[in-house]
Amino acid sequence: EPAKRLQEQCEALALPHAAAPLQFSTRDARIASTVVGISRAERVASLMDLLAVPMPDDLWTEIDEIVGVLA
To answer: Cα separation of 59 and 65, whole Å?
Structure first.
């Protein structure tokens, strides 16, 4: 259910669904690294593009409500 709600929020804002989960961990200073599995080296560029997608503050508020804020 939370994943479906996140997907719906991203679709409503015309954002790539993969950008939100990737950026979720990179926006928290307590998380030192994010490990992403990729099948080909060419995918690195697409991951960098996803990291650069502007995410509205309202979306982060909604995501925090969906998954719960880390204490």
So the answer is: 10
Q: Whole-model pTM?
A: 0.76
Give the Cβ contact number of residue 42 at 10 Å: 8
Q: Which residues contact 53 (CB under 8 A, 6 or more apart)?
A: 15, 16, 19, 23
Digit-by-digit pLDDT tens for the chain (71 residues) are 778 888 888 999 999 989 998 998 888 888 899 898 889 988 999 999 999 999 999 998 888 888 775 54
Q: CA-to-CA distance for 4 and 18, rounded, in angstroms?
A: 12
